[in-house]
Design brief:
DNAb Helicase, Chain A, 3 domains, two-stranded antiparallel sheet, 2 strands, mainly alpha
Length: about 220
Amino acid sequence: MAEAALKFGAAETPLYREAPNNIEAEQALLGAILVNNDAFYRVSDFLKPAHFYEPLHRRIFEVAAELIRMGKIATPITLKTFLPADEKVGDMTVAQYVVRLAVEAVTVVNATDYGRAIYDLATRRALITVGEDMVNIAYDAPVDMSPSEQIEDAERRLFELAETGRYDGGFESFNDAVKTAVDMANAAYMRDGHLSGISTGLRDLDRRTGGLQPSDLIVLAGRPG
């Protein structure tokens, strides 16, 4: 009886742990972008295709981003040409799946929250990879690699992850900086007030700052009296 219970318990225990992911959040964000391309600008400053767990979602986000940055509209129809036609998602074609993403999109209000959830999970997966590599190297270290060098390598990789695992980004490449600048310019052009951020209602201040930007801390002060 005890042996049967042990076997039953073993059968219930998963053989492996799945990497952290949230497919529903990825679907919700992509659907929001396809319904309203403005949702892309809410996440474009920190979210990249590589942050998506599902490979097809990476491709959809990448194609949509390229179209939007070129000033074109990203919809299921415009994306169809750039996605694999013969690939299946369950019993649907990729084109049908993209249409379903748009149809089931609820709102663009939570696009930033979805993007941050995807970003955080990607950072956790990267942290798991670093940890696994640290363990593997410790077990099978090259002869010419001392323990202190292993520690230095681990510290370097963790520091890089700490810098990239932030919404404000830390250091970024010139290409990424240019893309961010183009996205901000496009966002400003699409808005009525031609601001890249949120209007304060004070025209002179908006003209100087471009509106309130994500992660900005602006202090308004004046001399008393």
